[in-house]
Amino acid sequence: MTFPARVRVVEVGPRDGLQNEPGVVPAAVKIEFIERLAASGLPAVEATSFVSPGWIPQLADAEEVFAGLRRRPGVSYPALVPNLKGLERALAAGVEEIAVFTAASETFNRKNINASIDESLARIEAVAGPARARGLRVRGYVSCVLGCPYEGKIAGERVVEVARALLALGCYEVSLGDTIGVGTPLAARRLLESVAAACGMERLAVHFHDTRGQALANIYACLEAGVGVVDASVAGLGGCPYAQGASGNVATEDLVYMLQGLDIETGIDLPALVGAGRYICGELGREPGSRLGRLPDCRS
Ligand code: HMG
Ligand code: MG
Description:
It is a single chain. The chain has one domain: Alpha-Beta Barrel (TIM Barrel), CATH 3.20.20.70. About 40% of the residues lie in helices and about 15% in strands. It contains eleven helices and nine strands. It has helices spanning about 15, 25-40, 60-70, 85-90, 105-115, 115-135, 155-170, 185-200, 215-225, 250-260, 270-285, and strands at about 10, 45, 50, 80, 95-105, 135-145, 175-180, 205-210, 230. The strands form two sheets. It has a six-stranded parallel β-sheet with strand order 3-4-5-6-7-8. It has a three-stranded parallel β-sheet with strand order 2-1-9, covered by helices on one side. Helix 2 (about 25-40) crosses helix 3 and helix 8 packs across helix 9 (about 215-225). The longest helix has 17 residues, at about 115-135. The chain is globular.
């Protein structure tokens, strides 16, 4: 078995996690949370979204979050951008990396961003060119790569097509999202390998929601296949409001624990990361969804 020597962990809790909370977390708490995550050694912390506040009221304070955030050198703070209006807001806030997003399912895309896949790719084209011209890095997401809450099974060829389109539009990397956590290790690995055959493994990341408890096993299978970038959400926060029943991403603490056990370098200080998860869960008034966060001997 050979695994990558180093894995880049992309923390999505402040965005994917907090977008799905029933209440709105104050901007000052979000800022403290993001700063604690960055201080734990994470190379990338997805901070928020510049989407419609009517669609995601939980992240309507994106400007305030960026205005208050003390950014650490060497850490990237991507933010989701769905359209030109979002790009204008992100540029005004001084964002240096954006994430654009679409899906391999027509129905999910319609529910999530009110657009077909082709329409969404046209919007992304309109965003990615000007963003890159202004020096921003652009990351891409494909949702529903292993199944859709509305359409069920999704053809792997469709995922390949959409991932290729995102790379052709200037994304430096595409993250493959198992939005509703239906994947299992064999399916996850096969899908990753087929997308990698078309796009290159070095351009891909994986993004597993843990709805059915398969996320760590899926990631292990994808590491064996050579993936070097994994998205995760501290304390297992999250979901997608437009994918009913989707629970949070794999918990970052549990992922980092597994990576350490595999001798894979991440640069992350585990107790500090656990502390960041406990901090936000304290603010939300609940126990961490991670296993590590609930262990008494991991108190930081
Ligand atoms: P729409 O309603 O079709 O847009 O939504 P519109 O252009 O008709 O605009 C409607 C109103 O929204 C207008 O305001 C616009 O100005 C405003 P009004 O005139 O009514 O006052 N508006 C905006 N305001 C602020 N910022 C903006 C913006 N855009 C329009 N950027 C739209 C289309 C794409 C905007 C909407 O559907 C949307 O924002 N969707 C985002 C949904 C979302 O964030 N979902 C979760 C993230 S995706 C995810 O979680 C999956 C992922 O984790 C991977 C995985 O797990 O698979 C990434
Ligand atoms: Mg997600």
